[in-house]
Design goal:
- This protein has 11 helices and 26 strands.
- A hairpin with a 3-residue loop joins strand 24 and strand 25.
- Helix content is about 25%, strand content about 25%.
- The chain has 2 domains: about 120 residues, Immunoglobulin-like (Sandwich); about 375 residues, TIM Barrel.
- The model has no long low-confidence stretch (mean pLDDT about 95).
- The longest helix is centred in the middle third of the chain and has 22 residues.
- The protein is of the alpha/beta class and about 500 residues long.
- It has an 8-stranded parallel β-barrel, surrounded by 6 helices. A 7-stranded antiparallel sheet has the order 2-15-19-20-26-22-23, covered by helices on one side. A 5-stranded mixed sheet has the order 16-1-21-25-24, with no helix packed on it.
- The structure holds alpha-L-arabinofuranose.
- The site of alpha-L-arabinofuranose has 10 residues, from loops.
Length: about 500
């Protein structure tokens, strides 16, 4: 049996875990909004046309902040199209996803839905094809009580209370050539700085996110962050990171080590932000909003799903509807481990996305809603990762990967709730073939009453939950846990994600 060893000491803290780490993302893309959260004819729809079965699952998932309305979509979006009487709202081309946007859901309806799921709105403004004035207009519409053109329009539209949006994204992926209005770091940095400072003239306490790179693989990565932050440093609070992972062929060894790539990405962005801080002699520290992350079979989108026919602009087409396997969920769980490990600097994150589109929740029009495999690591981590993140001493055997060199077979992070919630360890075993026996030194935690664990694994790592078999995969009790004198041991199945809690 392969062995690994872990030491937990509650004195070694990384930082407080911000609830915003468990955010998500709803974009007007495919069936995320229409036929996803909103399906007026469905038997479970409420009086506003929102599916109550989806609302229940979103609440169970435990998402804090939800980024909206895009994504690439936002760079062609006119926010005014989505407010006011529904029958007067225009149908528009959505160039990002080659679809037709009906505008039946907009800012007011989405803010109403967020109240039902008990989440906070994080709103992205269009800095691709629009600019400072439109950002000011939507801020005035959303946040001012009344007495001005746009705030009175909101009141007249039936929403007397301001939406009070605190977090705002200054555009989306402006470094990407696919983005409408894609620009250089210089151009974007200047526009973002001017937009941020104008928005702060309305409300200095807004929390503003400037666009970082669309991925660490972008040719401009690193320099983009440096230039953009140099323009915006004193005006913003966060820089964004985006990362999607998929296996290359059957190189599952590298895929399982995706968290190593995420760790390096975060470390590089933190280093760049702190470099700009140093050269600007600033006292302020910029945090990371990791506002798009997931497993995404992007090659399938590019090669099979992408709509290009000039005569074909469907409403809510089936796009990016990846079905997630056990293998995907284990990688997904390891990405959460990586985010928590950086809790001192990653203080907001958004799982991209929430329903139907690369999502933990799937729906069938007129039919059921179900949990994908990735639902479980997210819901359990969101529920159990409370308090502070702890720095661990981990001794694990290593293995070689094609993409990232030598990486540890086992990865883990622990959290400790100082308000009596106990200690929780999140662990991934990346081995494709072997069980690992993990011994955890818990001497510094004092007496351990009880320990319990759940693991997500399967003999078939490609098993998934589907419309016809929606409960095929779920976490199972891991009964191998043994509490000894100052130690806890557990056996981790191959390709598994585990959560272990101590009283
Ligand atoms: O989440 C899907 C897309 O991925 C988003 O619209 C875009 O921001 C990113 O490239």
């Amino acid at each position: 049996m392969i062995r690994a060893h872990l030491t937990i000491d509650p004195h070694f803290t990384i930082g407080q875990i911000n609830r915003r780490l468990f955010g998500s993302f709803v974009e007007h893309l495919g069936r995320c909004v229409y036929d996803g959260i909103y399906e007026p004819g469905h038997e479970r729809a409420d009086e506003d046309g929102f599916r109550t079965d989806v609302i229940e699952l979103v609440r169970e998932l435990g998402v804090s902040t939800i980024r909206y309305p895009g994504g690439n979509f936002v760079s062609g979006y006119r926010w005014e199209d989505g407010v006011g009487p529904r029958d007067a709202r225009p149908r528009r081309l959505d160039l990002a996803w080659h679809s037709t946007e009906t505008n039946q859901i907009g800012l007011d309806e989405f803010a109403g839905w967020l109240r039902k799921v008990d989440s906070e709105l994080m709103y992205a403004v269009n800095l691709g094809t629009r600019g400072i004035l439109e950002a000011l207009d939507v801020l005035e519409y959303a946040n001012l009580r009344s007495g001005t053109h746009w705030s009175d329009r909101r009141v007249a539209n039936g929403h007397p209370e301001p939406h009070d949006i605190r977090m705002w994204c200054l555009g989306n992926e402006m470094d990407g050539p696919w983005q409408l209005g894609h620009s250089t770091a210089e151009e974007y940095g200047q526009l973002a700085a001017k937009t941020a400072s104008a928005m702060r003239q309305i409300d200095p306490d807004l929390e503003l996110v400037v666009c970082g790179s669309s991925s660490a693989q972008m040719p401009t990565f690193g320099d983009w962050e440096r230039v953009v932050l140099n323009h915006t440093y004193e005006h913003v609070d966060y820089i964004s990171c985006h990362a999607y992972y998929e296996p290359r062929g059957d190189d599952y060894g590298s895929f399982l080590a995706s968290g190593v790539n995420m760790d390096r990405f975060i470390d590089a962005v933190v280093a760049t932000a702190d470099h700009v801080k140093a050269i600007r002699h600033s006292d302020k520290t910029i945090d990371i909003s990791f506002d798009e992350w997931n497993v995404w079979y992007q090659s399938r989108y590019n090669e099979v799903e992408k709509i290009t026919d000039v005569a074909d602009w469907p409403v809510a087409p089936r796009l990016l509807e990846d079905s997630y396997s056990v293998l995907d969920a284990v990688v997904f769980g390891s990405l959460l481990i990586s985010l928590i490990r950086h809790a001192d600097r990653v203080t907001a994150a958004s799982l991209a996305q929430l329903v139907n589109v690369i999502a933990p929740i799937m729906t069938e029009p007129g039919g059921p809603a179900w949990r994908q495999t990735t639902f479980y690591p997210f819901s359990l981590t969101s529920r159990l990762a409370r308090g502070v993140a702890l720095e661990l001493k981990l001794d694990s055997p290593m293995y070689r990967t094609e993409l990232y060199g030598e990486v540890p077979l086992v990865d883990a992070v622990a959290t400790r709730d100082e308000n009596g919630g106990g200690t929780t360890v999140f662990i991934v075993n990346r081995s494709l073939a072997d069980e690992v026996s993990l011994e955890i030194d818990v001497m510094a935690l004092g007496r351990i009453g009880d320990a319990a664990a759940q693991s997500l694994f399967d003999d078939d790592i490609h098993a998934a939950n589907t419309l016809h078999d929606p409960e095929r995969v779920a976490p199972r009790t891991n009964s191998s846990v043994q509490v000894g004198d100052g130690t806890v041991t557990i056996t981790l199945p191959p390709v598994s994600w585990t959560v272990l809690t101590f009283d």
